[in-house]
Amino acid sequence: MTAATGIWPPAATPFREDLSIDTERYLAFCHELLRGGAHGLAVLGTTSEANSLDLDERKGVLEKLIASGISPAQLLPGTGAASFGDAVKLTKHAADLGVKGSLLLPPFYYKGVSDEGLFEFVSEVIGRVNSKRLQLYLYNFPQQTGLVWSPGLIAKLRRAFPETVVGIKDSSGDTQYLDTLLEQFPGFAIFPSSESLMVDALGKGAAGCISATANTHVKEIRALYDGWKSPEAASLNKRASAIRSLIASYPLIAAVKATLGDQHKHKGWHRLRPPLTSLGDQQAAELRGKLAAL
Amino acid sequence: MTAATGIWPPAATPFREDLSIDTERYLAFCHELLRGGAHGLAVLGTTSEANSLDLDERKGVLEKLIASGISPAQLLPGTGAASFGDAVKLTKHAADLGVKGSLLLPPFYYKGVSDEGLFEFVSEVIGRVNSKRLQLYLYNFPQQTGLVWSPGLIAKLRRAFPETVVGIKDSSGDTQYLDTLLEQFPGFAIFPSSESLMVDALGKGAAGCISATANTHVKEIRALYDGWKSPEAASLNKRASAIRSLIASYPLIAAVKATLGDQHKHKGWHRLRPPLTSLGDQQAAELRGKLAAL
Questions:
Q1: pLDDT tens digits for A167-191?
Q2: What is the pLDDT at residue B1?
Q3: B173 in contact with A at a CB cutoff of 8 Å?
Q4: Which terminus of chain B faces fewer neighbouring Cβ atoms within 10 Å, N or C?
Q5: Residues A138 and A159: beta-carbon distance below 8 Å
Q6: A-B interface: how many C-beta pairs under 8 angstroms?
Q7: Chain A residues with CB inside 8 Å of B274's CB?
Q8: Beta A165-170 vs A136-140: how paired, if at all?
């Protein structure tokens, strides 16, 4: 199975007033992202508030996406958890459904753990899921987890599990780290988390981009992906990066959802599950104004 | 219901070679801690590696403790989770079993969240568990969670839920924070996480102590608790603090388990679930020697 490439938005999750998942709206949105140019969907990630969903909800979302007609080959769900037991359950469930792969966070409760401990964690997940279908993409987001998939650890994982550990999503924003990965691991499916970094990274062999703002601007980002070598690349890049920078100057997930609320003319999109909170009306209006002016 | 007081060890979890819970050994150990002087057990906390157990295992442990004859009134389980949905399931399960209370971590995936978001998280848990039996002890461990229960937030929670939010376990080791809590919240059940801080804190109104090293030295810590105003207090405190400092000079959970292995003459105690790792043989021997010399 070849690894994923292209634009895989980490689809945001709309909530009803009682904070339950607005499934109908969610499914419609996911189909819209695919029609808008997404190669697939990196569902159930940080922007999706997956770690604010309970384990049953996470499984349910995946089943409903597939039942709605989205091909499992277009899905890269996040299946990480603090315990390997829960990570195994989620990852096996996803693999059994035939997904393209799973994004695996490091176990994010304990801090200061060793590369050896993280290697053992991944080994337990792979050994217990025990599926030839399994393809893992490491999920690097030290700002949330306090942990890093170090290049040394990645090299060790690739040696031990060459058919299974096939890529990484890097949400660190650390370009030096990203460049190190691109340099050291040709053939590894490396996804930066921002379109602002994508063109440079594509030139160095990146697989594509998994970006929060692909929720709101998938067409622009897809055009940039398709046209990064074209004469228009510089202007496409400038515009996509300006949008990204503006949205990311606010709390990112709240700003993405506020913008989705405007785009879909549905106030409910602005809801986040605690501990995250919505943009206030004033911030939302400011963002709206600035986006319109771009 | 009066809040908990005294010594509540966060019982460590023994694992078999396949990393499953060694239930028989675990239950025997918990009974032994109570016979050794523990007032109750703060099970399923950080030292217990609860966040390395899956959700079903966490429920199972609690049910088995009670089935083994331990009174639910002697149990303060950790029931936190990254999502309020999972935290609700665990907390409701524990409350329905009649436990003394639950230790609640803040939702520990997202970082940089607001006090408002944490307040909403706790509100959701309390509202959804919806049990008059529920008593919550906040669990403060910023070194793992990246989050702090700020004094302002605690005050707001106590005002909103005076019958429910009854105490806190503070594992920060930050004596200024601890003193602030003791000063601002008389009547709140405040547990420092180290016997080294206990005597000073008891003098300022603390409820007792929930300490990792109560796994290995419950008698010493209980004697200190009982005798903190006695003429022997200074020497008891000196000895208990020396033991604590020594064990805590190694990775704490691994050092506690290595010492339990020695005390119970069972090598299996040294196992930790990944991402945590055991002390190496050399470190374990060094710790053993230094402890014997104390």
A1: 999 999 999 999 999 999 999 999 9
A2: 76
A3: no
A4: C
A5: no
A6: 123
A7: 84, 107, 117-118, 120-121, 123-124
A8: parallel
Quote ipTM for the complex.
Answer: 0.97
Residue A42 lies in a domain: yes
Which residues on A lie below 8 Å from B123 (Cβ)? 274
Contacting residues of A for B81, CB less than 8 Å apart? 54
Q: 3-state class of B189 per DSSP?
A: strand
CA dihedral B106, B110, B115, B116 (to 10 degrees): -110
CB distance from A268 to chain B under 8 Å? Answer: no
Note the pLDDT tens digit of each residue in A54-65: 999 999 999 999
Assigned token pair, A254 = 């709240």
Give all strands (DSSP E) within chain A, no chain letters: 6-7, 102-104, 136-140, 165-170, 189-192, 208-209
Tokens of A87: 């990570």
Strand partners, A139: A169
Domain membership of residue A87 (yes or no) is yes
CB-based contact, B110 to chain A, within 8 Å: yes
Residue A267 lies in a domain: no
Q: Are B28 and B191 in contact (CB under 8 A)?
A: no
In this complex, is the C-beta atom of A163 within 8 Å of any C-beta atom belonging to chain B?
no
- B240-294 pLDDT, tens digit per residue, is 999 999 999 999 999 999 999 999 999 999 999 999 999 999 999 999 999 999 9
Give A190-206 pLDDT, tens digit per residue.
999 999 999 999 999 99
Count: domains in chain A: 1
Residue B14 Rama label (left phi>0; alpha psi -120 to 50; beta)? beta
H or E segment at A48? none
What CATH number does the domain containing B47 carry? 3.20.20.70
Q: What pLDDT shows up at residue A1? A: 76
| d(CA B249, nearest CA chain A) in Å | 15
Helix (H, G, I), strand (E, B) or coil at B168: strand
Q: What range defines the domain where residue B158 resides?
A: 6-226
pLDDT at B184 over 90: yes
Give B2-60 pLDDT, tens digit per residue: 999 999 999 999 999 999 999 999 999 999 999 999 999 999 999 999 999 999 999 99
Whole-prediction pTM: 0.98
Give the closest-approach CA distance of B145 to chain A in angstroms. 7
In a domain, B252, yes or no: no
Structure tokens at B157: 């929670």
Q: Chain A contact for B124, CB < 8 A? A: yes
| DSSP per-residue string spanning B192-237 | ES-HHHHHHHHHTT--EE--GGGGT-HHHHHHHHHHTTSTTHHHHH
Q: To 5 degrees, how large is the angle CA A83–CA A84–CA A86?
A: 70
